[in-house]
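User: I'm designing a mutation panel for Protein SCO1/2 and want to avoid disrupting the core. Could you give me a predicted structure to guide residue selection? Please restate the sequence first so the numbering is unambiguous.

Assistant: Good idea. Sequence first, for numbering, then the predicted C-alpha cells:
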Amino acid sequence: MLVILILLTSCQNKENTSRVAQLPYYQDALFTPVWLDKESDQLQEFHKIPEFNLVNQNGETITQNTFADKFYVADFIFTSCPGICPQMTENMTVLQEAFKTDTEVMLLSHSVTPKIDSVSVLKSYATTKGVIDSKWHIVTGDRKQIYNLGRNYYFAEQDVGLTKDEDDFLHTENFVLIDKNRHIRGIYNGLNTQAIEQLIADIHTLKLE
C-alpha cells in the first residue's frame, strides 16, 4: 500500500510540475536557456514582449494591460488555414480546459491574415471552437504589428539564419509561454500532445515561482 501511495503521489507531481524547479528565460530566436534568479538585476534589461494594440473576437481592444499580472500562451494562426491551425486550436482548447477556472492563465491567438480575419470572422471561429471569451483572445489588427511581434519578439517562427521581411508569410506551429513580467519562459510544438502536457506542467511550475 505504501509503495502504491508513493507511485500515485509521484504521478500527480509529474502532472502538475515540470522537471525543473524554475523555468529558464529566453531572449532570442535560438532559444538558448538563460537561468536567472527572479530577483536578478539582469531581468530589468532582459528581453520582453513589448506593448501592443490589437482587437479581439468581440471587437474589444487588447493590450498588455489585458494580461497584467497574468501568465499567457501565445500562438499565430489564421481561420481559413487547412493545415496545422485546426490542430493548434484544438490543443489551445486543451489548455483552456486545463486552466478553465484559473484566472491567472490566459491564451492569445494572433491572426496572420488580419485583412481576412475580421472581428466577425474571428467571432464565428471562436464560437465554433468553444472559446471562452474571458480566457482566450483571438486577435486581428495591423499586419505589420502582428508580424513584428511574431518574428522579432515572440520568436515564434524558428527559421534561424533566414532573412524574411513583412511580405513573407508567417506560419508556425509554436506556442510561446509568457510570464507576468512579459518574459518568454518556454516554446512548445503546438501540434505535439506531449509538448502540450509539458506546457501545462511548466505553467504549474511557473505559478510556484
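For picking mutation sites, this is relevant: The chain has five helices and seven strands. Helices lie at 2-16, 85-98, 119-129, 143-153, 193-208.
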